[in-house]
Specification:
Helix content is about 30%, strand content about 30%. The protein has 8 helices and 11 strands.
């Protein structure tokens, strides 16, 4: 059988497109198994090699999972575009800000009460500036929603938002408030409906909630950022190295 169609595209890519459309419209739902290779050969009039290449393409898109002896299972309705972040130092946060694009709204003043006091690690009644927005990967796909809280004394830094630089560095340069450390928490959650709508993701699907508190000289956060990522769009990578005697010498 011919390896290409009359359109000039490889036949396996056309077959992959047909199967991808069938998955997107729900003909094959998440959790379903695709027809066997033999069935696909018969239905589409192609060789086993063409079928295998088409399934490989779907696997690379994150749509299916292939296991020896278990067939091919649908694991997602839409292709996965995942952003990988490696974090071992504050410099890596700078790289993250440079590689992605964060768009925030004009902001509003909020008063810390209840749960918000715990998030911001501050006394009840303290005022903060709160900004909301989306962070996008280099190709434009939204990878997370982001809520940023900044102490009101740092108001004005929003004029520099959108320049591809980490907010804490903007604060350092404008106000001289230096981040002594970043305290980070990562929690597995189900994607809330309103955030799923913003990210065009499935409500209730697995997600990561990442809270970063940028701590100044006084030991209290001057900036807190909360990001929620659909699990299939973000990979967090951390390298840990054993400390040696040389690291502690002199």
């Amino acid at each position: 059988m011919s390896a290409s169609s009359t359109s000039g595209r490889p036949r396996y890519l056309e077959l992959a497109d047909e199967l991808q459309q069938a998955i997107a419209c729900g003909t094959y739902a998440v959790g379903d198994s695709l027809p066997t290779e033999s069935d696909l050969c018969g239905r589409h009039g192609v060789s086993r090699h063409t079928v295998r290449e088409a399934l490989r393409a779907l696997s690379e898109l994150g749509l299916v999972s292939r296991r020896q002896g278990s067939g091919t299972q649908v694991i997602a309705r839409t292709p996965v575009t995942s952003y990988r972040q490696a974090l071992a130092s504050l410099d890596d946060l700078l790289q993250y800000a440079a590689e992605t694009k964060l768009t925030l709204d004009a902001g509003r003043t909020v008063v810390a009460r209840g749960e918000l006091t715990r998030l911001l690690d501050c006394p009840s009644g303290r005022k903060w500036r709160h900004y909301q927005g989306l962070r996008r990967a280099p190709r434009g796909q939204p990878i997370c929603t982001t809520d940023v809280y900044i102490e009101p004394r740092l108001s004005g830094v929003e004029a520099d938002f959108g320049r591809g630089e980490a907010i804490y560095r903007l604060i350092e340069r404008r106000f001289g408030e230096e981040a002594q450390e970043v305290r980070q928490e990562i929690t597995a959650i189900s994607l809330p409906d309103d955030i799923a709508d913003q990210l065009k993701a499935d409500p209730g699907s697995p997600a990561l909630k990442i809270v970063r508190r940028y701590v100044g000289r006084g030991g209290r956060p001057f900036e807190v950022a909360v990001s929620i990522h659909p699990a299939d769009r973000f990979t967090y990578s951390l390298r840990l190295r054993r400390q040696t005697d040389e690291d502690t010498d002199g």
